[in-house]
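Example record for the data management plan.
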Amino acid sequence: MRKSQEGSVLIETVCACLILVILVAGCLEIFSFVTDSLRINKIARESARAGSLLSMQEKSPSRSACKEKAEDTGNNLVRSDRYFNNSTVQIKCQANKGAMHCQVDYDYRYLKYFGQSKGGGTIHAEATYPYFH
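Corresponding structural encoding:
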């Protein structure tokens, strides 16, 4: 191999490794986003379900009691999940006449695997369960 070719092989290897690192970082970011979205959807479903179940278990709970139960369940899920330690998760539940409706918003930050929290967006999830009052 000539000396002039050795330098070009090194440059090609560095470029290929850089592209590989960028692809792996992109895959990690997509995985993180999908995982967060699934967790937020689970919190919304479990919160609405807990409020709805309270309406079936007790003889005549008030709507505010069902709403509080749903929000407490969601907050307990957030606290028990060590993944959301320093994150902003907002849970809002409404006990309407026919259903328990919960909304969960999570401020997602990009590049959190790399210790950088620049940019991001909001992951929004909603769930509605029948409310038997």
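Summary line stored alongside the record: Strands lie at 89-95, 99-109, 120-130.
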